[in-house]
Amino acid sequence: MRHSEELDRVIVAKVGSSTLVGPDGSLDYAYLSSLVDQLVELKGMGFRPVLVSSGAVAAGMERLGLAERPSDIPALQACASAGQAALTEVYAERLAAHGCPCGQVLLTRRDVVDRRGYLNARNTLDYLLELGAVPVVNENDTVAAYEFVFGDNDMLGAIVSTLVGAERYVILSDIDGMFTADPSTHPDAELIEHVDRIDADLVACAGGAGSSVGTGGMAAKLRAARALLAAGIPMTICHGRRPRSLVDAVLGRGRRTEFGSPGAPREQARKLWIGIANRAAGTVGVDAGCADAIRSQGASLLPVGVRSVSGTFDEGDVVSVVGPDGALVARGVTRYCSADLAKSRGLPLDVVARFLPDKADVPAIHRDELLVF
């Protein structure tokens, strides 16, 4: 079996609850059928589609006869349990009508934080694609503990894109893309057609919460975009309700926002697992010179560039590296525990060696284990 890096023309599409659900709050089965038609059309063009689908809770509310979305975790997980079964049935039936098999893949953050679990998930997705199936992926909401949730399916889709080495990640949203301001309150807001770098100004354009039936928003989509810019995987946001929007996005047509460009350098799979799949155990603040060296020179992080250490972590944990402005610079595997790094911050290695002899030639984070954002 071939690994993800060798699978070509893989497209990951994510559809949100606000796009799947109709005005009455129930699943829009006509739209869902049109989405399946587009997935099958892409297969006919030689692409290998993977669908990350929200909507389990909304489908569960419908199946269980609930008029309002529950607020407590047990009720939400019960809705997800009933709804996931209903949603998968519909996808499987619609795909089977085209002679296409469907495979359900449910993930939690715990599955991908563990290196073995990450590789197992990758192998499962790879094999489903090899067999010509369309994997339908969602978070396993019925068992996910709070500390191990993805938070939103935009980031789940980004992680799946890195797992399968996707050619492109498409978010089918309820908006045409990223705007200079919220178009619902600023009619003069303009669509941002292309983004190569996410800076403070762009983050300021992003709103807060998403719809009443979803968990995401533009800020969540920017987090996913930032991860995929680091991975070298292009990402598109487009209006999922527009006819043939998924096919148009894959072919580079229609109103949309594009993040990154095809042909960008791809990062190593292990770095992507370190930087995107993992949760950071702490934060290391660095000075401007160190941040620049990491970003532009591919340097390792040395203790001399460290200015602050936040959180409690052990050697081998993943930590976030932030610059003087608080912006995320990188994420990597630390070779110091938090206490030792706090003692060593601002010091060259020859000085560190006087009180930590085993760290005489050890960077805080080696560049081979550092994903730069």
UniProtKB/TrEMBL annotation:
<feature type="binding site">
    <location>
        <position position="54"/>
    </location>
    <ligand>
        <name>substrate</name>
    </ligand>
</feature>
<keyword id="KW-0547">Nucleotide-binding</keyword>
<dbReference type="InterPro" id="IPR011529">
    <property type="entry name" value="Glu_5kinase"/>
</dbReference>
<dbReference type="GO" id="GO:0003723">
    <property type="term" value="F:RNA binding"/>
</dbReference>
<dbReference type="InterPro" id="IPR002478">
    <property type="entry name" value="PUA"/>
</dbReference>
<dbReference type="InterPro" id="IPR041739">
    <property type="entry name" value="G5K_ProB"/>
</dbReference>
<dbReference type="Pfam" id="PF01472">
    <property type="entry name" value="PUA"/>
</dbReference>
<dbReference type="InterPro" id="IPR001057">
    <property type="entry name" value="Glu/AcGlu_kinase"/>
</dbReference>
<dbReference type="InterPro" id="IPR001048">
    <property type="entry name" value="Asp/Glu/Uridylate_kinase"/>
</dbReference>
<dbReference type="GO" id="GO:0005524">
    <property type="term" value="F:ATP binding"/>
</dbReference>
<keyword id="KW-0067">ATP-binding</keyword>
<keyword id="KW-0418">Kinase</keyword>
<protein>
    <recommendedName>
        <fullName>Glutamate 5-kinase</fullName>
        <ecNumber>2.7.2.11</ecNumber>
    </recommendedName>
</protein>
<dbReference type="InterPro" id="IPR019797">
    <property type="entry name" value="Glutamate_5-kinase_CS"/>
</dbReference>
<dbReference type="InterPro" id="IPR015947">
    <property type="entry name" value="PUA-like_sf"/>
</dbReference>
<keyword id="KW-0808">Transferase</keyword>
<feature type="domain" description="PUA">
    <location>
        <begin position="282"/>
        <end position="356"/>
    </location>
</feature>
<dbReference type="GO" id="GO:0004349">
    <property type="term" value="F:glutamate 5-kinase activity"/>
</dbReference>
<feature type="binding site">
    <location>
        <position position="153"/>
    </location>
    <ligand>
        <name>substrate</name>
    </ligand>
</feature>
<comment type="function">
    <text>Catalyzes the transfer of a phosphate group to glutamate to form L-glutamate 5-phosphate.</text>
</comment>
<feature type="binding site">
    <location>
        <position position="141"/>
    </location>
    <ligand>
        <name>substrate</name>
    </ligand>
</feature>
<comment type="pathway">
    <text>Amino-acid biosynthesis; L-proline biosynthesis; L-glutamate 5-semialdehyde from L-glutamate: step 1/2.</text>
</comment>
<dbReference type="Pfam" id="PF00696">
    <property type="entry name" value="AA_kinase"/>
</dbReference>
<feature type="binding site">
    <location>
        <begin position="173"/>
        <end position="174"/>
    </location>
    <ligand>
        <name>ATP</name>
    </ligand>
</feature>
<dbReference type="GO" id="GO:0005829">
    <property type="term" value="C:cytosol"/>
</dbReference>
<dbReference type="InterPro" id="IPR036974">
    <property type="entry name" value="PUA_sf"/>
</dbReference>
<keyword id="KW-0963">Cytoplasm</keyword>
<dbReference type="GO" id="GO:0055129">
    <property type="term" value="P:L-proline biosynthetic process"/>
</dbReference>
<keyword id="KW-0028">Amino-acid biosynthesis</keyword>
<feature type="binding site">
    <location>
        <position position="14"/>
    </location>
    <ligand>
        <name>ATP</name>
    </ligand>
</feature>
<comment type="similarity">
    <text>Belongs to the glutamate 5-kinase family.</text>
</comment>
<keyword id="KW-0641">Proline biosynthesis</keyword>
<dbReference type="InterPro" id="IPR036393">
    <property type="entry name" value="AceGlu_kinase-like_sf"/>
</dbReference>
<dbReference type="InterPro" id="IPR005715">
    <property type="entry name" value="Glu_5kinase/COase_Synthase"/>
</dbReference>
